[in-house]
Amino acid sequence: MKRDIIIVGGGVIGLMCAYSLVKEGKKVTIIDEGKIENSASFGNAGLLSAFDKSPLSYPGVVLDTLKLILKGESPLTFHPTLDLKIYQWLWKFVQNANEKRMKRSMELFEIYGQIAMDLYTQMEEIDGMDLDLQKKGLLMVYTQEDTFKQKIKKCQASERFEILNVKQTKAYLPCANDNIQGSVLLKKNSHLDSKRVMLEMKKYLLSQGVEFILEEKIEELIFNQHEVVAVQSKHNTYKANTVVLSTGFQTLLAQKAHNDLMLIPAKGYSLTFEMPKELKPKTSLLFADMFIAMTPRRHDVRITSKLEIGSNSK
Fold first, then answer.
1. I need a labelling partner for 55 at 20 to 30 A (CA). Which of 28, 45, 240, 245 fits?
2. What is the pLDDT along the chain (314 residues), one digit of tens a residue?
3. Is 314 part of a structural domain of the chain?
């Protein structure tokens, strides 16, 4: 049997591709080596923070990170490795940590961020998905006076920000102690429940006739001249008119199609727990000095932080 479109990879990108294709009337099959429910997309903070927030490679990030490493407080951990691609990626990262690149990235973030925001709104209001989408802004909380003052200087002339003192910040974050200096509310940003997004999207796609083939690892691409005509697992071959690769940092299949993507694995950490309603943050927040995100969700709170590069563990 020849399928219309096969998507290899069932993370949030793969599911989003399927969603868009279904809207165009296409017949879609998703093949994933796992069960969908254990993908990395379940563990993220769920922040939709495309507006007024710098990318990771902002000017000064290298020096800031080195200082935190020396203090033992760095959110980034690098494990020495023999994989040259990781060093190539790090060098590219350093090269992009400048004012010109940052401004260009922020412009693109806002363009695609608005598209994403509109799409998530459509998924809730038109498609009936329950994503726990909250459009209450992102609170940038500061514990260091100098960095808070620097942020205030950049924000005073814009209506897109709201500068909050300690008392006002505690109204948003009742569990905060007196060590904070204040905060800045980025009004245009939002957050959602990443686990709910994955489960709701899978349910919706099944209702639209999308075929899921799970716990099936695709190992080969089958070519007819320069065109991919099928994908192959250890035991099965799946023919298709179109193949979409959505395998995250696992770029081996892309390399077989002569595309060497500059992607590397990074391991993050999250902690999800229940919190009394009166102590819960009123919106998602980022402790800007410590690179810790905190996301209130319907029944719990999720804290995410730390990034490991070069780690072999999953």
1. 245
2. 889 999 999 999 999 999 999 999 999 999 999 888 777 778 889 999 878 877 777 888 878 777 777 777 777 788 888 888 889 988 998 898 888 988 888 899 889 999 999 999 999 999 999 999 999 999 999 998 888 988 888 776 678 889 999 999 999 999 998 889 999 999 999 999 999 999 999 999 999 999 999 999 999 999 998 899 999 999 999 999 999 999 887 878 888 888 888 888 888 889 999 999 999 999 999 998 888 999 999 999 999 988 888 765 55
3. no
Domain count, the chain: 2
Judge if 68 and 120 occupy the same domain: yes
Rounded (10°) angle between helices 194-207 and 12-23: 40
Q: How far apart are CA 177 and CA 1, in angstroms?
A: 62
How far CA 94 is from CA of 52, 55, 90, 101, in Å, comes to: 21, 12, 6, 11
DSSP letter string over 2-43? EEEEEEE--SHHHHHHHHHHHHTT--EEEEESS-STTSGGGS
**Is-contact 66 228, C-beta < 8 A?**
no
Q: Is 76 strand, coil or helix?
A: strand
CATH number at residue 176: 3.30.9
Tell whether 78 and 15 lie within a shared domain: no
Place of tokens 């910040």: 169
